[in-house]
Amino acid sequence: MFKKTVFFLLGLMLMCNVAVAAEKEMKLGFVYVSPVGDAGWSYAHDLARQALAEQEGISAFYMESVPEGADSERVILNMARKGYDIIFTTSFGYMDPTIKVAKQFPKTTFLHCSGYKTADNVSNYFGRVYQPRYLTGMVAGKMTKSNQIGYVAAFPIPEVIRGINAFTLGVKAVNPDAQVRVVWTKTWYDPAMEKDAAISLLDIGVDVLAQHQDSPGPQEAAQDKGVYSIGYNTDMSKFAPNAHLVAAVWDWVPFYLDVVKQVREGTWKAGSFWPGLETGAVNISDFGAMVPQDVRDLVNARKQEIIDGKYVVFSGPVKDQNGQVRVEAGKVLSDQELLSMDWFVEGVIGSTK
Amino acid sequence: MDGFLPYLLIIIPALAAAVSTGTSILYATLGELVMERAGVLNLGVEGMMMVGCLASFLGCYHTGSPWFGLLCGGVAAMGMSAIHGAVCLFFQGSQVVSGLALTLFGVGVANYLGTPYIQQKVVGFASFNVPVLSSIPVLGPIFFQHDAMVYLSFFIPPLLWFLFMRTRYGLALRSTGENPEAVRAAGISPSAVRWSALMLGGFLVGMGGAYLALASMRMWVDNLVSGRGWIAVALVIFAFWRPGRAVFGVYLFTGVTAYLFRVQALGVGIPSSFLNMLPYLMTLAVLFASSLKGRGSGAPADLGNNLKPGS
C-alpha cells in the first residue's frame, strides 16, 4: 500500500513538472574562455547573451575566463546541476567536458561552439567566418604596398588555419604577388604578448596586420606604428581608428534565438550547425574611412555572390604551400575537409605545426 | 629571404622588444626579490600587479598624468602587500595561502572594478629617444629608444644591489631573511624590517603592473597581466635572489620569446610548438648549468617562515 502511494505521488510530481515546464522561464548558461571585456570572441557571444536576456521569459547567465579542460567540466557540471535548460560552451577545448557532462544530464540541451562532436543532447555550431575573412583578405590585398601582410594567430587548429587560408585566398584574388606571414602566439588572450607578436611582423616589413585572437593587442600595434589592420570578432575600430580597415565579425543573436525557440517548442534536434554570410551570423564590419570606394564595391559585390551561392570560397584550383594542387578546378572543399584543414594554401609563409 | 643574414638582422629589434616587454616582469621580479630577501614569500604578485595596473590606469585616466598614475599603481600594490603583511606578520597566517588568496582577490577585484573602463585609453608614457645614446649603433636601438619607465628600470637593479650590499638597512634586511633571531639580538625588530621590505617590494611590483597599462597598452582591457606575476616569482628563483641575475633572467626569457616570434615571421619551417617552448627550455638550461657550479641557490634560509611571536 505504502509503495503504491509513493509511486502515485511520484507520478503526480512528474506530471506537475511537465505542466510547469511549458510555462517556465528558459534558463541559459554561457561558458566563456576569456573575460567578456576582451572586446573579442567572448564579447561577441556576450552581446548576444545580453540581447537574449532582454527577451520575455529568458534569463541568461555566464561564467567568464573559464580555463579549458578540467576546470570547464566543473563549471559546466555546476550549470547543469542548477537546472539550466540550455548551456552554451563557447570554446574548442570545452568539447570533451561538454560531451561528458551531457551524458549525465540527458534532459539538458548543450551547444558546443567550434568543435566537431555531437551527442543526443549536444549540438556543435560555428559560423562560416572564413567567408568574411576572405572578404577582409581582399581589402588587405588591395591596401598593402609592401605586398607583405602579417597574421597574428592563436593556435594551429583547423578553425584558425581555415581562417588564414580563406584570408590568403582573398588577398591573392586581388593581389597575386602578396604574401601572408603567420606568427603563432599560442594564446587566445594576452594583450601585451599579442601586441609584441604583431610588432615582430612589423619588424620584418609587413604593412597590414590581421589577427585571430581575442585581444585588441595587434590592433594597438598597428595604430602605434602607423600601419593598417584587419579586426576580428567585433568591430575593433575603436582601438585603432587610424589603422582599422575592416573586421570579420560575429552576430549570434538570430542563431541563439532560434535555438531557444526550438528547445522551448520541443522541436530541437542535435546536429552540426554552420551558418554563413547568408544568415547574418557572420559578416564584415563597416569599412574604415581610408578604404577607397572601388575596393568597397569590389568586396561588397563578392559578398553578394557568396550570399547568392554564386561564389564558393574554397573553390578550385587551390594549391598548397608546396605548390601541390589540393582542390581541382571546378571542385569545392566539403565541410568535412574544411573542418579538418591542416595545410596552408599557396601564399602563406609559416608552419601549420 | 635566404641565408643567415635576416636571422642576424632581427636580433637587434628582438633585443629591443626584449627590453620593452621585459620591463613589466623586471619590476615585478625585483619587487618579489626584495620581499623574499627579507624572508617573506609572496605568491600574490600576479594579483598585486593587476591591482597596481588598474590603479595606475585610473590615476592616469582621471588626472592625465602618467607619473601620478605610476604612483597610484605603486601605492595600491603596497596596500595589497600590507594585507599580506597583516596576515603573515601580524596574525601568523600561512604565507603560501595568503599569497595565493591575494592573487585570486587581486585579479578578481581589478577586473571587476575595471569593467566600466574597458577599451578606454590613457595618455601613458610615450616612447622617446635618449639624446646621443640612442644613436649609438646596436646599443642605441636596443636600450635607448623606449619610454621613461624603461629608462627608470635601468637604475633599479644597481640601486638594489647598493641597498643590499652597502647599507646597514640592507644588511638588516638580508639578515632577517636568513636568521631573524640574530637580527632581534642585534636590537633591530625583524618584524619592522619585513614590513619595510613588503612596502618597498610591493611598490616595485605595482610599477610592473603599471607598465602594462601605461606603457605597453596605454588602455584598459581585462587581465592585462596574464600570468606575468607567476613568471616573476619563478624568475626570482632563477636569479638566485640576486638583482643582477634577475635582469639577466628577465631579458633572457623575453629575448628568446621575442626572437622566436621574429623567426616565425621570417617563415622558417620549424614547428611553432617547439619554438614557443624554447624560452622555458633555455631558462631551465641556464638554471641547470648555473646550479652545477655548486654555489648554492642563495635562497634566504628563513624564506617562507613566520617570525616567532614577540619578535
Give an overview in words.
The complex is a heterodimer of chains A (353) and B (311). Chain A is an alpha/beta fold. In chain A, 41% of the residues lie in helices and 19% in strands. Chain A folds into two domains: 24-125, 3-Layer(aba) Sandwich (Rossmann fold), CATH 3.40.50; 130-249 and 283-349, Rossmann fold (3-Layer(aba) Sandwich). Chain A is built from eleven helices and 15 strands. In chain A, the strands form three sheets. Chain A has a seven-stranded mixed β-sheet with strand order 12-10-9-8-6-7-15, sandwiched between helices. Chain A is globular, with a radius of gyration of 22 Å. Residues 18-23 of chain A have low confidence and may be disordered. Chain B is an all-alpha fold and 311 residues long. Chain B has one domain. Chain B has helices at residues 5-9, 11-37, 45-63, 66-90, 95-114, 139-143, 148-166, 168-178, 180-185, 190-216, 228-238, 243-266, 272-292. The longest helix of chain B is centred in the first third of the chain and has 27 residues, at 11-37. The radius of gyration of chain B is 20 Å and the shape is globular.
Quaternary class: heterodimer
Give the spatial strand order of the biggest sheet of chain A: 12-10-9-8-6-7-15
Distance between the termini of chain B: 66 Å
Work out the count of structural domains of chain A: 2
Treating each run of at least 4 consecutive H or I residues as one helix, how many helices of chain A? 11
The strand count of chain A comes to 15
Kindly name the structural category of chain A.
alpha/beta
**Which spans of chain B have pLDDT < 50 for at least 5 consecutive residues?**
none
Q: How would you sum up the major sheet of chain A?
A: 7 strands, mixed
Q: Largest protein interface?
A: A-B, 40 and 39 residues
Mean pLDDT over all positions of chain A:
90
Distance between the termini of chain A: 68 Å
- β content of chain A, as a range? 15-25%
- CATH top level assignment of the largest domain in chain A: Alpha Beta
Helix-strand string of chain B? HHHHHHHHHHHHH
- The helix-and-strand class of chain B reads mainly alpha
Q: Gyration radius of chain B, to the nearest Å?
A: 20 Å
